[in-house]
Amino acid sequence: MNAETFFLTLFLGWYISCYGIPQNLLPLLLQFYHKFDEFFYYYNNIIYPEYFNLNDYTLEKGEVEGEV
């Protein structure tokens, strides 16, 4: 890591801790979060579909939720 990268990272950390995230970046961060969440769910569903298939899980009449 060179000096410029180190000091830029240090400055950005200081700026965000003092002033918070600029308001015009919040919608972009939320959009990125939602796209990443959809991406994560879609590809995990492709890789391991049994984990995300909740339709097969049924409670019996006497079974209480939370019991194993």
- Helix-strand pattern: HHH
Tell me the overall shape.
Answer: elongated
Helix content: 55-70%
Measure the end-to-end span. 50 Å
Q: How many β strands by DSSP?
A: 0
Mean pLDDT: 81
Tell me what portion of residues adopts beta-strand conformation: under 5%
List low-pLDDT spans.
none
Q: Tell me the radius of gyration.
A: 22 Å
Q: Please work out how many helical segments DSSP would assign.
A: 3
The assigned structural class equals mainly alpha
Account of the protein in words:
By secondary structure, the chain is mostly helical. The chain has a domain at 22-56. The chain is 63% helix and 0% strand. It has helices at residues 3-19, 26-47, 49-52. The longest helix has 22 residues, at 26-47. It is elongated. The protein starts with a helix and ends in a 16-residue tail after the last helix.
Describe the protein's topology:
Layout: H1 3-19, H2 26-47, H3 49-52
List keywords for this structure.
single chain, 68 residues, mainly alpha, 63% helix, 0% strand, elongated
Task: Describe the structure concisely for a colleague.
This protein is an all-alpha fold. The chain is built from three helices and no strands. The mean pLDDT is 81.
